[in-house]
Amino acid sequence: MQSALFFFEVGSLSQNLSLFQTHFILFHALYRLNQLGHETQTFNIEIHVLSIQLNVISANSTTEPSCYLESDGLRDYYLDWNNFDKTDSADVASLLSQFWQKYNKNALYTPQLVEQAQAYFEFDTTPTMKELKAKYRHKSLEYHPDKGGTTERFSELLNHYKVMKNAITKL
């Protein structure tokens, strides 16, 4: 395993994959630290997208930290190193696209994402809807799980198709 310092060197946050890896390591460490606080019943860390807060548990407190009373999919995700190891650049692009689609529909269609989708479909310029649909049909025959493809590749195809379709309709 590589040293965590590698991910914090100058320039390590300039690529989406290394940014994801750095974020993953940070959140993995926070959740591990939170486990320690829970096990020792001395503190808990509230970990949210926009804030991280340390809560010290007093010696006479009888309540368990609330973060361990319920299922936490994010905690499970960040504590599983397989998620770090198996995530590649395409996965990160898909995760980012899904994130922006969920939290800010307009940001899904940033120039960078449109450029990536255009390259994915091998267009030099913005295509017509007819050209996009033809490329989409061709790739869907190859990537669809029922045709021998995988769910991941087909999901990536759908994400790129949505980005291009929106870019074309906004012209």
TrEMBL record:
It comes from Psychrosphaera algicola. Residues 116-171 form the J domain. InterPro entries: DnaJ-related_N, DnaJ_domain, J_dom_sf. Gene3D superfamilies: DnaJ domain. Keywords: Chaperone. The keyword Chaperone applies. The lineage of its organism: Bacteria, Pseudomonadati, Pseudomonadota, Gammaproteobacteria, Alteromonadales. It comes from the Bacteria. PROSITE patterns: DNAJ_2. This is DNA-J related domain-containing protein.
